């Protein structure tokens, strides 16, 4: 079935809206001691992937040490279109909930929110308590180092002073800065792989996953060339150009599984590596015997002789991760600076600095693109992509006139991304880590920085009006669209500011 874009958007109802109530206990220094969450998830008219959402939300929510954590989650059937999976389903919402709670604690105590975040980062002991076997070893827990390095490199204290100076001298524009960490759990899935060497020496590879722009086939080609090159002690040159990945079907890969969870690339690479190991075991005796007779030989000579000797040059494997290493944690942090125009509600992303623990990247160029793309896509969720429905539940955001996605103008004006090489790990695929979905969650830093800018605008408004209402405690919706930002900054702030410039006796004369 092929649908036009409008029909598709009406039928597929986007991410899941949620209603969250929380009870949180904390000390005067900002340390959270207990958290209870009541969560209602709007699933729409049918199940789809909705039963999996609670797990993803809670796993993402656990990125901070809440002390005692309890939750009550209900998935609700409603009269709106079915909600479905999108990049980091559940994890994105869970991260937002966690940041909203941290913001609430900081606002209540009038503390710096980044201080409260750092105060509630996990120790390795609490990480093991919250994530159990997925926590791995103490040496793998790089988040405190990443968070500290980012804060130091960006010089957050200097930035805070600079932003305060900017806010003091600009009436109609305010800036905010925020540093957000992630702890993102991923799980490796069983994945098949098949490697075949043809008579001409070319190599054909099939894997269970599909290429959808995440660089799967690029990494699979590299792994194939690397693994088959191990027949020679120092590797074999030019094998990469001989590798061709073809899209498998349900006959050639009967247990193909699905492409999801950011781990398909590494699972596919591991299944291909295992298949290549089978082939190298078959080819090595042929190579050794040829070298005794002829000295150094080429790949073409090896394959020609193996074909004559009826060696099976096709190998199929099925990678099944063991229980201990089937899931692991990804760590990263991002600092974002946002400027808000309080007259219009427009938010401009001035700068983002991001550090992500990629393990030993299978392909740094691919992973860098994944991180940058995921982050920008996350900006869309947190700031622009408003999915609206009418009173009957019919989707009205059914095209680009009403549904705004990130554009070239929404990318950070300065975007600095660093891949952290966290070293060798024997239970990872070439010590690598996932890079597809986890960086998406870091876009929460843009939303949090916007909140800080709005807080500065509200503090200014408070100084004009002398209102008894606190300007610091408020709820910022997702997405934080222009009308939402403008309203929170104060729709009547222009008139209030102008009145504050008129001396009181002059004002009385005017009224008389």
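^ Assign residues to that structure.
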């Amino acid at each position: 079935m092929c649908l036009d874009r409008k029909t598709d958007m009406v039928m597929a109802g986007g991410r899941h809206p949620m209603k969250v109530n929380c009870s949180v206990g904390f000390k005067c220094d900002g340390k959270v001691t207990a958290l209870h969450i009541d969560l209602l998830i709007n699933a729409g008219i049918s199940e789809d992937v909705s039963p999996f959402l609670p797990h993803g939300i809670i796993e993402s929510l656990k990125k901070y040490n809440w002390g005692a954590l309890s939750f009550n989650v209900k998935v609700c059937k409603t009269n709106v279109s079915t909600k479905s999976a999108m990049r980091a389903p559940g994890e994105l919402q869970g991260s937002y909930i966690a940041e909203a709670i941290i913001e609430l604690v900081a606002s209540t105590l009038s503390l710096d929110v980044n201080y409260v975040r750092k105060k509630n980062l996990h120790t390795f002991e609490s990480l093991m308590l919250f994530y159990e076997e997925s926590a791995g070893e103490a040496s793998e827990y790089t988040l405190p180092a990443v968070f500290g390095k980012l804060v130091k490199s960006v010089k957050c204290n200097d930035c805070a002073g600079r932003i305060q100076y900017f806010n003091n001298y600009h009436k109609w524009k305010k800036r905010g800065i925020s540093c957000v960490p992630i702890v993102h759990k991923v799980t490796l899935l069983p994945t098949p792989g098949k490697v075949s060497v043809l008579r001409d020496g070319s190599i054909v590879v099939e894997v269970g996953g599909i290429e959808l722009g995440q660089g799967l086939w690029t990494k699979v080609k590299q792994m194939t060339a690397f693994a088959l090159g191990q027949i020679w002690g120092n590797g074999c040159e030019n094998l990469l150009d001989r590798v061709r990945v073809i899209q498998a079907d349900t006959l050639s890969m009967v247990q193909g599984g699905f492409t999801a969870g950011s781990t398909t690339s590494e699972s596919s690479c591991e299944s291909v590596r295992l298949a290549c190991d089978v082939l190298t075991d078959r080819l090595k005796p042929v190579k050794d015997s040829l070298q005794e007779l002829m000295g150094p030989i080429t790949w073409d000579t090896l394959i020609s002789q193996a074909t004559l000797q009826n060696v099976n040059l096709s190998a199929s494997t099925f990678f099944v991760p063991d229980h201990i290493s089937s899931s692991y944690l990804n760590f990263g942090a991002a600092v974002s600076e946002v400027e808000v125009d309080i007259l219009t509600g427009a938010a401009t992303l001035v700068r983002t600095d991001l550090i992500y623990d990629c393990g030993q990247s299978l392909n740094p160029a691919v992973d860098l693109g994944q991180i940058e793309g995921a982050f920008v896509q996350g900006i869309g969720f947190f700031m622009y992509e408003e999915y609206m429905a009418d009173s009957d539940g019919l989707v009205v955001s059914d095209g680009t006139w009403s549904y705004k996605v990130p554009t070239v103008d929404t990318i950070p004006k300065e975007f600095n991304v660093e891949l952290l090489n966290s070293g060798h790990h024997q239970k990872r695929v070439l010590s690598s880590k996932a890079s597809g979905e986890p960086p998406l969650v870091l876009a929460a830093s843009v939303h949090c920085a916007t909140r800080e800018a709005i807080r500065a605008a509200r503090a200014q408004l408070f100084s004009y009006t002398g209102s008894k209402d606190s300007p610091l405690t408020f709820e910022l919706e997702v997405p934080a669209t222009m009308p939402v930002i403008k309203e929170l900054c104060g729709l009547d702030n222009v008139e209030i500011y102008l009145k504050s410039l008129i001396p009181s006796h002059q004002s009385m004369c005017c009224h008389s």
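Residues 249 and 256 are 8 Å apart (CA to CA).
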